[in-house]
Amino acid sequence: MALPLRNARIRLPQGQIxxxxxxxxxxxxxxxGSWEDSGQWLPVIERLSxxxxxxAPDLLGFGESEQPNVHYAIDLEVACLAEHLDxxxxxxxxxxGHSLGGWIAVSYALKYLEQVEGVVLLAxxxxxxxxxxxxxxxARLLKLLVVGWVLRSLHSLRKILKLRSLEQLLQKRxxxxxxxxxxxxxxxxxxxxxxxxxxxxxxxxxxxxxLVLQGAQDTPIARLLNQTxxxxxxxxxxxxxxxxxxxxxxTQPDAVAQAIRGFVEExxxxxx
Length: 272
Prior knowledge:
By secondary structure, the protein is of the alpha/beta class. It has two domains: about 210 residues, Rossmann fold; about 40 residues, no CATH class. It is built from twelve helices and eight strands. It has an eight-stranded mixed sheet, sandwiched between helices. Strand 1 and strand 2 form a beta hairpin. Helix 1 packs across helix 12 and helix 2 crosses helix 3. It is globular, with a radius of gyration of 19 Å.
């Protein structure tokens, strides 16, 4: 039987943060993906909460957390997470991050190495390499479009963006418009600033165990992101999970939870 979740809020220097929390034991911090909030992790947390202390915040600017009018950067999100964990007196944690959350998790681990027991990643953002350059130009274009222009130019746009239908195009645009902070962090910043926060040159200094989870049906971009982290982080392992969809967290929460459990238990065994 799943334990009841506790919802909470805290006022930090960066803004008010909302989070979900449940369970006791080793602490696992779940950081959501680019177009999500902490609710993304609930199916996985439900399967782990009987044995671990699970905490899932809405990142600053996302979900029910405050969206202050500030300049957003990965460093800001890392600082906010550090303030949050310090306020809760959480000194040793495991970090689990999807997409943007993975970028933040690894950035945190690089800065606060002594606090992090291990990191689990799913399609983590924050690296550039062969096949990953200029991957956001379509999103920039789509976000700039006005609806009337979209409708008038639908035929040519569908060919350019490789979208199968008007509904798919509008759904993608709504996703971008609904997540302005994600857009700022991922591609709506100066190129030099983005490059300064990317991790491909820093992963060699990541001296904690890393598990990268990859679904059998992950997109080509997700596979490239996973493989880049797995290759560049010195203590990283890539684990492939069976799946029937590219949405691994939605379709295979049991497999994801089992992989996280195995990773944490192996670390605890090594410590013992």
